[in-house]
Design a protein that fits this description.
With 442 residues, this protein is mainly beta. The chain contains eight helices and 27 strands. The longest helix is centred in the C-terminal third of the chain and has 14 residues.
């Protein structure tokens, strides 16, 4: 099916199902072999760049089906599909979640902060497709994912923590990793730290290869009251609200940015007695609500959600499971009134950026990609510099040569002043042009 036809078909799918895509655990296979857990190809954006929801670096995003566990990265096991105490998929408010692109008619698209005038192409990428690298090609963060401290078991989602967010050390412990290809367990001694403002019963950080990696206690144990949730994670300090989307049911009615969230947290502070509700319809929302983009370095959360509904509920999956608290219609109404009067209209924000181009040079610690063939006017083409010092990029270069089409996923921006440097690149794959579209080789 051609990209444009696929796009039209996807437009017929209910947005609540198009919102997210999942990644299940995969048994490792030899280096470079592609594996797929489902034959689900997604056309996520037009004009040569896609705003895709991809694993993390960031967290993978399962379909909107109650009962699916949300793995973050590395090897994690899916839980049964139906139980109220299940992790809830990420939804990214203010993010393009359907197959259409907001600037498709003009051919303009924003890639990492710069606007490009591309032909009406589609970049097709299989969101269920992933490489399971063998041990030698994994980063230490991908290798070592299990930690036990004082009888409490934690697992890593692959998210890094800045040293400024560390609290005191709790000691040195073994971090465990498993090489499935050779059926071998590996251990690495690492210093473990508390995270400033976060209860150690829920999260810790360990130093791996000079970086601090977040480890989470994954059992289902929601705080009984909203006040306990506020205290356990110091939410007013660790969870900023800078972007939100207004919804009416499943229909988004506007994307906004927010300069100051102090008033919101003051209102929520008055809801400390709100009780946790055991619900099995976390995604079932009627009426009006605000859905805040929930990104927090301290909590290891990347573009999850924190929803405030007009009928008085807070619903969030920041803590991997779907938590629901009833704060009351009055408090919810105050929050909605505040964001409506203080929000500034903003463009949709992609979960991650994707750049397609032809590889024109392979240098020492970098590669260069030219997007001229995508441009409406090829003389407007730009050459982008992608650093290859990250193993996740360099390991993907095997077999790729100058002249090949490549597709790069990244979470940062393009630094024009530094020479169009792509920041935050975490994934690279070889692509090809077919029927006027760009596809990733499976």
């Amino acid at each position: 099916m051609k990209g444009k036809d696929l796009l039209e078909k996807m437009n017929l799918v209910d947005s609540k199902y198009v919102e997210e895509a999942s990644k299940a655990k995969k048994k490792p296979v030899p280096w470079g072999k592609w594996t797929a857990c489902a034959a689900c190809v997604t056309a996520a954006a037009v004009v040569g760049v896609l705003a895709l929801r991809l694993p993390d670096i960031p967290d993978p995003i399962p379909p909107v089906i109650e009962g699916d566990r949300v793995p973050e990265t590395g090897e994690t096991e899916p839980l049964p599909e139906t139980t109220p105490a299940t992790e809830v998929p990420e939804t990214t408010p203010g993010t393009e979640t359907t197959a259409t692109h907001p600037e498709a008619e003009t051919g303009n698209t924003n890639i990492g902060g710069i606007v490009r005038d591309y032909n009406e192409l589609f970049v097709l990428q299989n969101t269920e497709l992933a490489i399971e690298w063998t041990w030698e090609y994994k980063t230490d963060t991908e290798r070592y994912t299990e930690l036990t401290v004082d009888g409490v078991h934690y697992t890593s989602g692959g998210r890094y923590l800045d040293a400024s967010l560390l609290d005191k050390s709790v000691g040195t412990y073994d971090i465990v990793g498993y090489d499935y290809a050779t059926d071998t367990e590996h251990r690495m001694a690492a210093e473990v730290f508390r995270i400033d403002g976060v209860t150690e019963k829920s999260m810790l950080a360990a130093e791996l290869d000079g970086k601090y990696v977040i480890f989470k206690e994954r059992s289902y144990n929601p705080p009984a009251t909203f006040g306990e949730l506020l205290d356990d994670y110091s939410l007013a300090e660790t969870l900023p609200f800078h972007r939100f989307t207004m919804y009416e049911g499943y229909t988004d009615t506007g994307y906004y940015s927010l300069e100051d969230d102090w008033e919101i947290w003051q209102i929520l502070e008055g809801c400390r007695d709100a009780e946790y509700l055991e619900v099995d319809n976390w995604h079932s929302i009627e009426g009006e609500y605000a859905s805040f983009t929930a990104t927090s370095d301290a909590l290891g959360a990347y573009k999850k959600v924190f929803r405030v509904t007009a009928d008085g509920y807070v619903k969030t999956n920041v803590f991997d499971y779907g938590y629901t608290y009833h704060i009351g219609e009055e408090a919810a109404g105050q929050i909605l009134a505040y964001v409506k009067s203080h929000g500034t209209a903003a463009a949709p924000e992609p979960y991650t950026n994707t750049l397609a181009g032809k590889l024109v040079a392979i240098g020492d610690g970098y590669i260069l990609a030219d997007d001229s063939f995508l441009c409406t006017d090829q003389t407007d083409g730009m050459v982008f510099r992608i650093p290859t010092d990250d193993l996740r990029i360099s390991r993907s270069m095997k077999g790729i040569e100058v002249g090949d089409v490549i597709v790069v996923n990244f979470t940062g921006e393009i630094d024009v002043e530094a020479g169009n440097v792509v920041t935050g690149a975490y994934s690279l794959a070889e692509g090809y042009v077919a029927d006027g579209d760009v596809a990733v080789i499976e």
